[in-house]
Amino acid sequence: MTTQRHPISVAPMMDWTDRHCRYFLRQISRHALLYTEMVTTGAILHGPRERLLAFHPDEHPVALQLGGSDPQALAECARIAEAFGYDEVNLNVGCPSDRVQSGRFGACLMAEPGLVAELVGAMRSAVSIPVTVKSRIAIDEMEEWPTLDGFVATVRAAGCSRFIVHARKAWLKGLSPQENRDIPPLRYDLVHRLKQENPDLDITINGGILDLDTAARHLQVVDGVMLGRAAYKNPYVLAEVDRRFHGASEPAPTREDAVRRMLPYIEARRVEGVPLNAVTRHMTGLFQGQRGGRAWRRHLSDFAHKNGAGPEVVEAALARIDPPKGFSQAAE
């Protein structure tokens, strides 16, 4: 099985990368690989599966991130993901929250590479789509390079060929999940070394990367770059992905283009009873750093939560932008 190349991806982010967020980001880049929020095996097997997993066909390429530590449950969820049409299944071995640890999954699994190999093997035997792993470089007092090197060596033996590595250690005790995204120092050098010593593996680097110029420099060493909060808070950072990394010939969409592409989707969701702010909360950063950006955010904040609000609210917010400077075609 060969994994399709994805030089730029957007990280799985709890409470952020839901289906509305992903559909919006897809209006800016057609090719960036988008990840779901982490979904636990228990939620899929025993919860509202359709609500949790359904996505719009335009979201492709899209990957489902799973949280779990039971081989049979993960294999079944991988089969379900493939049936839903996901392009990849990713195992979360990086989340440091207490709730995740109590379920024996997330970053704590870095201490059990043999189990992770078993989980990956079970999922790979169940599906034909790629099974990938997202991890940290180490946890707690574990030494960083020996931990990362040994973890990848064990898991690759189960057939995993693509690793996404958040280039920070995770501290399971003493730091909150938010602090774990900022306080442990970034060790890009270790992820670069991982690729250099495993040239046949597909290695994606994650953590603190804010723009495509920085991404391009990393791509001289590794295979992929995963953007997280930068892509959520300033989604137009993705505007040049298709041209720079996929050879697209058409110009990057303007910010106005992205908004207008969302209007039919917003109307369709209103008919289904989805509140407008469930969609527009992901769009507020679109005019980050642009004249009128504050007025855009304020109008959505003031009116998108009202009953029955729909595309007209978004169009009114768009009218608050001061043209033509609000519609720069260049990525920030």
Automatic annotation (TrEMBL):
An example molecular function term from Gene Ontology annotations: tRNA-dihydrouridine20 synthase activity
Ranges for domain DUS-like FMN-binding come to 10-319
**Any idea which residues are catalytic in this one?**
C95 (proton donor)
Residues binding FMN are P12, M13, M14, Q65, K134, H166, N206, G207, G208, G228, R229
Gene3D superfamilies attached here? Answer: 1.20.120.1460, Aldolase class I
Family annotation (CDD domains): DUS_like_FMN
Lineage: superkingdom = Bacteria
**UniProt cofactor(s):** FMN
Which keywords annotate this record? Flavoprotein, FMN, NADP, Oxidoreductase, RNA-binding, tRNA processing, tRNA-binding
List the Pfam families.
Answer: Dus
Reaction catalysed?
5,6-dihydrouridine(20) in tRNA + NADP(+) = uridine(20) in tRNA + NADPH + H(+); 5,6-dihydrouridine(20) in tRNA + NAD(+) = uridine(20) in tRNA + NADH + H(+); 5,6-dihydrouridine(20a) in tRNA + NAD(+) = uridine(20a) in tRNA + NADH + H(+); 5,6-dihydrouridine(20a) in tRNA + NADP(+) = uridine(20a) in tRNA + NADPH + H(+)
Q: What class of enzyme is it?
A: oxidoreductase
EC number(s) in its UniProt entry? 1.3.1.91
* UniProt site positions, description: Interacts with tRNA: N92, R181, R294, R297
Q: Which family does it belong to?
A: Belongs to the Dus family. DusA subfamily.
Which HAMAP family does the record match to this protein? DusA_subfam
What is the role of the protein in this entry?
A: Catalyzes the synthesis of 5,6-dihydrouridine (D), a modified base found in the D-loop of most tRNAs, via the reduction of the C5-C6 double bond in target uridines. Specifically modifies U20 and U20a in tRNAs.
Q: What is this protein called?
A: tRNA-dihydrouridine(20/20a) synthase
Species, as recorded: Skermanella cutis
